[in-house]
Specification:
There is one protein chain. The chain is α+β, with helices and mostly antiparallel strands. It has 8 helices and 25 strands. A hairpin with a 2-residue loop joins strand 23 and strand 24.
């Protein structure tokens, strides 16, 4: 009996010892597991070393402690010693989504479409030099009468200007009549008439000579076209040489309207349908463009081309010297377009900040073609459908400058270009 009790006591003690050992092992196992799983990303973040705090709006100002920014109503952001926690060697930087949203960072997709160009240029009305005549007597003589005309007067074709006596014409007429009376040959007679034409005698006066067979001593010079007198400075009793100008007359229909346009948009000017003319003196009035021409030379100072339009002016509403405005409305062939505000232009290069598949902000160098209406056409450097930062570039710039990421991104981009020639 005593032996049985001893055996039971030994079994109970052994069970207790084994239970304690097992409990200790289980406790140690779960304690280790618990300590491992309790290290959350937040705890990891707390273990990172903070160099300083800063306001993304004023990245060059550093603070030793966290808190509210003295510049903006927002919390200061820590700058860690290890930089980007998820740095993988890829070019670019990552910005906290909450911070991006608070500062209004927005992206726009790269799209393909025509670049719209709408611009209004100052212009001016001038005489049409295609309708410009200089009237001369072609032979020396005397001014017998000047009709009451002066600069700026409108004249119709055939309006008399001055009456002249020209001895050379009188002498040639006498030779002509003498040949007729003495039986001169047809060649001789025609030669005299041709000499009168070359000396400046009007065809009307030659016909009168042939029909009347009388010498004319006074001749009337008349306006050869409709227009405005721009030079006329003769007086009765004056002598006139064969080189003296009797009058200058310029036509008024059509007129020229000229404007200086940038040489960079010459490729966008295609036809007259792109133009619209407005004149402050005649608000709301439409003017028909007959033809247009880009003059061949460029102004070396302003880098502009002269655009000349030939405009109908039947009612002479357009006066030379008037101010006008030329509206150009054109569009290009489809090309890659981004918002102009997405472009970073340093002078030496143009870049955009693109968003890659991992959500990182990556700078890309681009080739710019042209800019208009808030959009910029890109030749190369990005693809259709990519997203670029269009608002909040200062945030990307401040983050990149603080961490030195921009230099690293450029270096990585250049090395990748070197690996793939």
């Amino acid at each position: 009996m005593t032996s049985f009790k001893r055996k039971n006591t030994a079994l109970i003690i052994s069970g207790m010892i084994m239970g304690g050992i097992i409990s200790a092992g289980v406790f140690a196992y779960f304690s280790a597991a618990h300590s491992t799983t309790d290290v959350s990303p937040a705890n990891k973040t707390e273990s990172r070393k903070v160099l300083f705090w800063y306001d993304p709006m004023y990245p060059n100002t550093r603070f030793e402690k966290p808190g509210k920014s003295p510049f903006m109503d927002m919390d200061l952001v820590p700058k860690y010693a290890d930089g980007d926690a998820d740095a993988s060697g890829a070019p670019g930087i990552r910005i906290d989504p909450t911070q991006s949203q608070n500062l209004g960072l927005k992206t726009e997709p790269v799209r393909r479409g025509p670049l719209q160009y709408k611009q209004t240029f100052p212009a001016n009305v001038s005489y049409n030099d295609y309708q410009f005549v200089i009237l001369q007597a072609r032979s020396p003589g005397f001014i017998e009468k000047v009709y009451p005309l002066t600069l700026g007067d409108k004249v119709q074709k055939g309006t008399p200007l001055v009456e002249l006596t020209i001895p050379e014409w009188v002498e040639a007429q006498g030779e002509y009549l003498l040949l007729l009376e003495t039986g001169g040959t047809g060649t001789q007679i025609d030669g005299i008439l041709e000499r009168l034409r070359l000396a400046g005698m009007a065809e009307e006066d030659i016909r009168r000579l042939k029909s009347s067979r009388k010498i004319q001593t006074r001749f009337t010079l008349k306006a050869p076209i409709d227009g405005v007198i721009t030079a006329f400075d003769l007086r009765a009793g004056m002598n006139i040489g064969k080189d003296n100008v009797v009058a200058k007359i310029q036509g008024m229909d059509p007129v020229w309207i000229s404007a200086a346009v940038p040489e960079s948009i010459a490729w966008m000017i295609k036809d007259a349908a792109q133009f619209a003319i407005s004149v402050p003196a005649w608000p709301g009035k439409a003017f028909a463009i007959k033809k247009w021409l880009l003059l061949p030379s460029v102004d070396a100072t302003t880098r502009t081309l002269q655009l000349r339009l030939l405009v109908d002016n039947p009612d002479e509403a357009l006066k030379p010297g008037m101010n006008a405005y030329l509206k150009l409305n054109s569009e290009s062939q489809p090309m890659l377009l981004i918002p102009t505000k997405a472009l970073i232009d340093s002078g030496d290069e143009q870049r955009v900040i693109a968003v890659d598949e991992q959500g990182r902000f990556v700078p890309k160098q681009v080739e710019v073609f042209h800019e208009s209406q808030g959009m910029t056409a890109i030749r190369a450097g990005i693809s259709e459908g990519e997203k670029v930062v269009a608002s909040g570039l200062f945030l990307i710039d401040s983050e990149a400058n603080i961490s030195g990421a921009l230099d690293r991104m450029r270096a990585t981009a250049h090395s990748q270009q070197g690996d793939h020639p």
